[in-house]
Each structure stands twice: as structure tokens, then as C-alpha cells.
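Many introductory courses stop at the sequence. We go one step further.
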Amino acid sequence: MSTRKKPPATPAPAGPPAEVGEVLRRLAAAIPEPRCELDHQDAWTLLVATILSAQSTDRTVNTVTPLLFEKWPTPAALAAAPREEVEAVVHRTGFFRNKAKAIQGASLAIAEQHGGEVPRAMAALVALPGVARKTANVVLGVAFRLAEGVVVDTHVMRVAQRLGWTLAKSAERIEAELQAKLPRDQWIDAGHRLLLLGRYVCVAHHPACQDCPLFETCPARQGAALGTLDERTAATKLLVESRGARGGSGPGAEG
């Protein structure tokens, strides 16, 4: 959609924080069906995929997990697999030794302590090897539709900061501030909408402010908007749907 030169990288807020209700309304129109872009069949495959996505891309993880789950289709099978074989399969995701150890450790705990089922409680999830709050929030929200928190990765952190919603630098503090700002029934979907906006529009360097449906309300906006709000909303919807169909490309934060 854009034909103009993109604005400078990493704009900072220069006005009052964006109004929460207006942001949520615009995001719901632009990204009506937010989704996790990690391919999965159930809570366990989502848990494993999310662990593998740390410092990697959803696209890369989605090329690795089909073989992983074909070879070891249950938590017990993956837990019992030879470590070097698991490392070879997940090698492309980076940090493959630590990740192989984590997904096997989590799978062993699920098999031996939880009857082969992923637990539905935050405390039990974060007790699993390799699982911190971000991973637990992904699993609880996506697999079980339980709003126990807000997924905060590098994309959500960036967008929340640019909207003027937080000055915090840590994921834990930003999550707490987003929980205070957002209605609880929006924690899951609004969190994923912020993530997708950050992944495809409000990117780290040279964000496409001119094409963003949040332009008028964002205190960090740069340049001038292109087209009407309806046009930018439609363009964002198409971008997210088309890019998402090929697999997410943005790196996530640890945990």
C-alpha cells in the first residue's frame, strides 16, 4: 500500500498514551481473528513448539515440528527419545541442546506427573522445564482459552511502549501493566493482536506508521497516514492474513 519513504526507526511516544478502548476497537477491525502462528494439534504440541520458538521464528519452528511429532507423537515418546536424535531434529531452531533438554524434560514431567496431559494451571505450567510465563500464557490462552495473563514477547513489548502504555523494560512488568489496562476478557485476543501488529506493521526498524490502523491514536506515529482508516484497516487485515499463512517471521522472547 505504501509508496512513501518509511519513517525513521524506533519512534518514541511524543504525546499522551493511546486510548485503550479506541486501540482495541481498531485492532479488532484490522485483525478480527487473531491466532497463534505456531502450527500445533493440541496443548502439548503447542507447548513444545512455543519452547522451540524462543530466539527463533514461527516459520522455522513450523518446518521442524512435523518431523519431531511424527517421530515422537506423545510426551512419553519424546521424553524417552535419544537426546542426540532430538537435537538433530530441532537443530535449525537454534540453541538446540538447551531446547532439546527443555522439551524432553517438560514432556517427561507431563507424562509422569500429569497423566500425559498438559496442566491447565499457571503454577503447574511454569514448574515444567523450559516453561516461563510467556510460554504458559500462550498455552493457556490458545489451547484452553484461559485468560491467566497477557502474552508479552518482543513485539508486544515494542508496541505497548510506542503506544505510551508502559515505560517498563521487563516482560514481567509490562505484562502486569497490560493486565491493569486491558479488560480481562481481552487479555488473550488483544495480546495476540498487539503481537501480530508488531510482527507485521509496527516492526522494530522503520515501522510502517503510514499504513497503520492505529496511526491517529498512536503517540509515536511518524510521517503522515496514507489513505483512510478503512483503507489502512483493510490493508493490515490482508497483510496479516497473507503473511501469517506462510508462517510468522518475527523472533519471540525467551520463555
